[in-house]
């Protein structure tokens, strides 16, 4: 049973929970090499870490964000205990997000994974994780596509998450000092997502459409591509950029 106040803060929690419960823990998912149980472990750790960092800031004792080794204790839990931990951590994140909304200015800067974000980021980021990883469980069903299509999902990914999406992929490209990659992911009627990378840095931003698109798609598909995923139906995106350019763009987007 998910409390009403938690479902209001995290409206994507109930659809995600139903998707988990409709499958066996050892079923495979669209997230390569992850089972349903692996996805749930990841989400349990996400909820814990988002709450931990925000709670510490509220207490006046800021902490650094931990890596994904934070998930290790959850691997040792039974399926039933893992499910309980997941719901408990989501409820705790709801409580901390409510306290932050009450006690902090919305533009208060808080350190998260080497950059600064604002207090509303923490619940919003959990919402994005619930949408994205529900797609890992269900693929392109109507609920997943509708949620991925929401403009705030694109804004959160580009503006609030930003460069960490590209860091590992940029390293894997191994660009020479004089090489530079630029790509435009376009959804008609919206700003382009512009990706750039060179030997030292990577960037991501929203910009007005200009010139040819590297990849054109609907908004939901663009979001999946941005997070290193592919829709089940390949006709949902198209490109005239050529296979080598697409390979490089896919590598850039493969690391988060």
Automatic annotation (TrEMBL):
GO terms for molecular function: metal ion binding. Residues 13-137 form the Mycothiol-dependent maleylpyruvate isomerase metal-binding domain. Transmembrane segments: none annotated. InterPro entries: DinB/YfiT-like (IPR034660), MDMPI_metal-binding (IPR024344). Signal peptide: none annotated. It comes from the Bacteria. This is Mycothiol-dependent maleylpyruvate isomerase metal-binding domain-containing protein. It comes from Streptomyces griseofuscus.
């Amino acid at each position: 049973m998910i409390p009403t106040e938690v479902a209001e803060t995290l409206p994507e929690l109930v659809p995600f929970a139903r998707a988990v419960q409709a499958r066996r823990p050892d079923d495979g998912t669209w997230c390569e090499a992850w089972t349903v149980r692996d996805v749930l472990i990841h989400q349990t750790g996400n909820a814990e870490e988002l709450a931990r960092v925000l709670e510490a800031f509220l207490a006046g004792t800021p902490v650094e964000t931990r890596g994904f080794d934070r998930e290790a204790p959850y691997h040792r839990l039974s399926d039933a205990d893992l499910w309980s931990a997941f719901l408990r951590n989501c409820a705790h994140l709801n409580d901390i997000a409510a306290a932050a909304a009450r006690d902090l200015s919305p533009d208060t800067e808080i350190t998260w994974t080497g950059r600064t974000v604002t207090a509303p980021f923490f619940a919003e980021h959990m919402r994005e994780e619930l949408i994205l990883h529900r797609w890992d469980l269900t693929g392109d069903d109507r609920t997943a596509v509708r949620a991925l299509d929401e403009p705030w999902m694109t804004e959160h990914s580009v503006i609030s998450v930003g460069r960490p999406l590209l860091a590992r992929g940029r390293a894997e490209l191994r660009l020479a000092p004089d090489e530079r990659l630029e790509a435009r992911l376009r959804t008609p009627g919206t700003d382009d997502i512009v990706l750039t990378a060179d030997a030292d840095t990577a960037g991501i931003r929203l910009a007005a459409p200009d010139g040819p698109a590297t990849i054109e798609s609907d908004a939901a598909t663009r979001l999946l591509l941005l997070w290193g995923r592919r829709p089940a139906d390949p006709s949902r995106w198209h490109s005239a950029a050529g296979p080598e350019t697409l390979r490089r763009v896919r590598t850039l987007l493969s690391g988060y």
